[in-house]
What we know:
Elements: H1 2-18, E1 22-26, E2 34-38, E3 41-50, E4 53-62, E5 68-72, E6 82-86, E7 98-102, E8 110-112, E9 121-128, E10 133-141, E11 155-162, E12 175-182, E13 189-198, H2 199-229, H3 238-264, H4 274-294, H5 307-327
Antiparallel strand pairs: 1-2, 2-3, 3-4, 4-10, 5-6, 5-11, 6-7, 7-8, 9-10, 11-12, 12-13
Helix pairs in contact: 1-3, 2-3, 3-4, 4-5
Amino acid sequence: LAKFSLIFFLLLVASYHSCAALNNSTSDDPNYTYMLQINKFKFYYSLVATDDGDAISVMAVYQDLAWLGVGTSPDGEMIGGVAVIGQPDAPVSSTNPGKYTMSDESVQGVVLMDTSAQTLKYGNITQDTITKTTTMSFIQMLDETGEQSIKPSGKNFFIYAMGGGNSFPTYHSGGRGSFQLDLSGLSPTVINPSQESSSDNEATIWAAHGIIAIIAWAFLMPFGVASTFLRSLFSSDKWFKAHLWFNATAYVLTVVTFILAVVETPREEMFSDPHFVVGWVMVGTASLQVIFGVFRPNVILMDDPLRPVDVVANTIQSMKSGSIRAFW
């Protein structure tokens, strides 16, 4: 069972990194030449000529209600990039959608650029609460003073991110990712697309987190405890083997559940979110129980001097497990 749990976890991680559905094709909007779709995110674009020079016309559409950001980066990473971020709850203005520099992954590292750098044309962000869609559009010059140029021919790294809601600045829990586009020719190509997170992936990870936790703490752990009280139904020490394997498998699944939570939880919430704090307690105390189990008295020798200590430790652990299950 332990090996099965590990294999299941590895398959889950592999599917998590490969489930981004990406499609690049001719635009379904007549105002744009091409369209790139990555799960619930659509990126429409055209190369256009303006009075100030060549530019790219962009429309980003997200199938949910949230703040939205798209931009360029030297290497596809957030740090060092320049993003256009739209806030649906704020009035449309020269800074909304606005251009932001990103020097760090924290909120403090995302800084609105000076007014002189806010050179977007026709910037707009709207939401349709009926279809639950957020749409941001703008025209951006290909060459901006002091900024990385967008090449009309050759590879360009683009980045995108979506919030979990309209409030900004907040963590991009709606999803984020990057892709490369060659804007030249009749059919731009997508090169080495990457998807670091999406709302669909996040829902899958949290669903797996909940299901595995239920298996471990609502079934396996109680069965392990029950085997000690029903030892009279077992011959010899078979009750202990059942107790051992139920609890050992529950511990492995608990660790898997915890890892899934680490993958999807913002670092700043790992010690403040009540649910995650309970996770720390569960993993910590479960690990202590495993250590106690390794050094427990021999199951056959009932007169072992450490037997009373073992009984007390197991009683406390059982009470803790029951309390956590009740809270959870």
